[in-house]
């Protein structure tokens, strides 16, 4: 094919793109022919072997207009593109935005404007632009726009090692907010890339202070440590680290994951054995307490029975003692009657009272007791007359007369003891 054919095709496309004019008629040199659907289609019978060339218009250009449009507009001609977007089109098809003398700072952002000629500042002393409409003259002004809203940077699949040397892959999101727009513009060249590098380094460093189980069990502590470390590093750039969220945490390879699974299985088995042992200890302790309670119950029953037997034996002994005293004060050969029994009981009561008074007198306490008459001491009028000195002598004589007739076996009253008690009563 002749070399002039591609050149004609390129010239036609450039001409169409720049001036939106129809294709010019080709020079009739007998070598260039167009397809039948072209308006300048020509046929020649003497040159039928020359291949035809089909010149197609460029594809439609999809642009986003600087004018407020609701959706992308697909335009098929450069004039329509220029009318819709207000921009120029280069020969290569690149849309160049038209320069204006106004700029808009959206809400949540701020701008820093440099002047290169005014007062010979040459780029010094930038001016802060609040949200709104501002003048921005090309070449005379240079504008930096800073987003003050909270943003996030993703850190995916970061390899690292835990404190127990487990290789892991960790990914997270770093949330930050610019609090001083001057420093990101003039204190650092690429603030977002620097924040990402700082977050990556801090994440790998802090991860080495935690074991694998600690990260799995308490991920919030890891997030807090990362927030503190990253925040202290980027504060000099006018950036605040609001929070750091660890999204995924897993072993680096399958072999490590299998070893961790075996370790966790062994730990679960150990905990199961520990729980089983503790359960057996609790069962044994319960049986021990049951036996102790049963033995205490039997002890209480035995003590109650013993007290019952003791009370019965004491009552029997008291009855025998009363009978012995009554027989001692009765004439020989006579049977004690109810009157003698009452007198014997009163004598025994008086003896018990005297024993209590002796215990009080022999006490170690520094106490003084004053007793009134015998009636105030708990004796009635008859008892006061019965237990006088004469009656004590009478009891002593009766006991002495019957001493040879009475024994001192079980259930009997010792006559000598009774006589001594009566002597003491008489002395008192």
UniProtKB/TrEMBL annotation:
Residue span, Band domain: 100-264
A cellular component term, taken from the record's GO annotations: mitochondrion
Organism per entry: Mycena metata
GO biological-process terms attached to the record: mitochondrion organization
CDD domains: SPFH_paraslipin
Highest rank taxon of the organism: Eukaryota
Record-linked PANTHER family: STOMATIN-LIKE PROTEIN 2, MITOCHONDRIAL
Protein name as annotated: Band 7 domain-containing protein
Pfam family, one: Band_7
């Amino acid at each position: 094919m002749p070399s002039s054919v591609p050149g004609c095709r390129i010239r036609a496309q450039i001409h169409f793109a720049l001036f939106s004019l129809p294709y010019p008629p080709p020079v009739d040199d007998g070598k260039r022919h167009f397809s039948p659907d072209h308006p300048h289609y020509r046929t020649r019978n003497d040159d039928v072997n020359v291949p035809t060339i089909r010149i197609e218009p460029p594809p439609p250009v999809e642009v986003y207009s600087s004018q407020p449009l609701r959706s992308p507009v697909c335009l098929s001609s450069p004039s329509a593109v220029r009318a819709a977007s207000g921009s120029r089109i280069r020969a290569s098809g690149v849309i160049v935005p038209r320069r204006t003398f106004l700029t808009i700072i959206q809400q949540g952002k701020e701008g820093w404007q440099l002047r290169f000629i005014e007062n010979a500042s040459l780029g010094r002393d930038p001016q802060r632009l609040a949200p709104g409409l501002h003048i921005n003259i090309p070449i005379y002004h240079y504008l930096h726009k800073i987003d003050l809203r909270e943003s996030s940077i993703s850190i995916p699949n970061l390899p690292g090692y835990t404190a127990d040397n487990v290789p892991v892959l960790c990914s997270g999101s770093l949330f930050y907010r610019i609090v001083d727009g001057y420093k990101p513009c003039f204190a650092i060249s690429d603030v977002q890339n620097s924040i990402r590098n700082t977050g990556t380094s801090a994440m790998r460093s802090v991860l080495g202070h935690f074991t694998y189980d600690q990260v799995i069990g308490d991920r919030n502590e890891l997030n807090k440590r990362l927030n503190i470390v990253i925040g202290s590093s980027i504060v000099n750039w006018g950036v605040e680290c609001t929070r750091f969220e660890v999204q995924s945490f897993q072993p680096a390879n399958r072999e490590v994951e299998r070893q961790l699974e075996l370790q966790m299985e062994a730990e679960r088995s150990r905990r199961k054995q520990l729980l089983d042992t503790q359960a057996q200890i609790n069962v044994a302790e319960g049986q021990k307490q049951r036996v102790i309670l049963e033995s205490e119950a039997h002890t209480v029953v035995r003590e109650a029975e013993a007290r019952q037997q003791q009370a019965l034996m004491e009552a029997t002994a008291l009855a025998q003692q009363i009978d012995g005293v009554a027989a001692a004060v009765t004439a020989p050969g006579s049977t004690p009657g109810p009157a003698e029994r009452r007198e014997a009981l009163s004598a025994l009561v008086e003896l018990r009272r005297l024993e209590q008074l002796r215990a009080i007198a022999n006490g170690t306490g520094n106490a003084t007791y004053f007793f009134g008459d015998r009636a105030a001491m708990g004796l009635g009028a008859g008892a006061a007359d019965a237990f006088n000195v004469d009656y004590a002598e009478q009891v002593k004589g009766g006991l002495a007369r019957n001493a040879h007739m009475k024994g001192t076996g079980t259930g009997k009253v010792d006559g000598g003891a009774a006589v001594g008690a009566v002597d003491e009563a008489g002395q008192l």
